[in-house]
């Protein structure tokens, strides 16, 4: 076996040579194992449950096939994600359609495909859906997203369950607004939803949210609504750096199920079906990004910059959230004697720092560098900044590898460009 860095049984240097860099590499085996850990935790807790994989994390037609074959549902948050899923053959009945500002065309599309659930995010959206379903004489099952007023300890930009939030119905208005569905012919309320934020490593805010949700659930049932499910969203954190705290879903899920069972008994209501929408915890550890080191520059007396052939265009998270990542040089052993503290920077024409400070074994031009845990919110948030082409995505399964998404070409970059007549000569 070579000394090279191995990911999911594959030599990463060989992958970089075969497919080129920058390259997103996703492991189907890890994706499936992560989905199954969540399913197994629910099974062992004996709960009525569903898992909606959060498509915003990492979505393409191949990923939809993986999700479908695991028998779980899919959360989509735009017409584009919905289209991708349907185009891949995903069963629309297992799709849950989200979004805080769905437009008319998206609502029509969701009804046209007969998605299993629409999550209503505002009073205004409920009214639009009422009008649309009456016009089409078509029934739809809905959940209502509620803002439970929980402040989870995570980055401010990914905290979404606070009272001051664009997401969901304010808790104080939820009962009245959801109650209106009793008078509606085609909008059928089946549950309530919340998502308190992402990259949360502590189970307390989740347990607290489940209590708030169950209290509202009880009120709605006593108002005569025929609800059956509570969707608690996603948000399970993962360790990006070796010493980061990790969120143990196998421990948390049975605890949450027991807690909800106990609370339901106390409140004398039937235990609801529990739905979760994990994204990051499924996809992040299943992916790495491979780069080739180019320029290595020592600033005298200060630091060494190691520049790679990608950066904020394929991973905007460090620039957006100050997110930290771990990395290794794939073609060299992690030899302590060779370690130097460096900054890994990307190729975009601005600061573009991927990793502010990391010890790497004497990085040289031509080395292959792997940034770890990039499977979530990297490919899905990539841009063409500087007219960089989005990298290819390669999928690994056992000892096989195949292209999941082609690398963009220069032609792709100009294919939607048009020259207005007055600029033609
Ligand atoms: N369900 C809903 C309604 C959501 O809004 C989200 C994420 C999820 C589920 C999945 O959450 P997860 O399990 O991945 O934490 N771009 C940011 C993350 C934004 C999360 C948005 N919503 C980042 O790169 O950290």
From TrEMBL:
Pyridoxal 5'-phosphate binds at residues 235, 277-280, 377. Pathway: Amino-acid biosynthesis; L-lysine biosynthesis via DAP pathway; L-lysine from DL-2,6-diaminopimelate: step 1/1. Specifically catalyzes the decarboxylation of meso-diaminopimelate (meso-DAP) to L-lysine. This is Diaminopimelate decarboxylase. Homodimer. GO terms for biological process: lysine biosynthetic process via diaminopimelate. Its EC number is 4.1.1.20. It is an enzyme of class 4 (lyase). The modification N6-(pyridoxal phosphate)lysine is found at residue 56. The active site is at 349 (proton donor). The lineage of its organism: Bacteria, Bacillati, Bacillota, Clostridia, Eubacteriales. InterPro entries: Ala_racemase/Decarboxylase_C, DAP_deCOOHase_LysA, De-COase2_N, Orn/DAP/Arg_de-COase, PLP-binding_barrel. It catalyses: meso-2,6-diaminopimelate + H(+) = L-lysine + CO2. Substrate binds at residues 280, 317, 321, 350, 377.
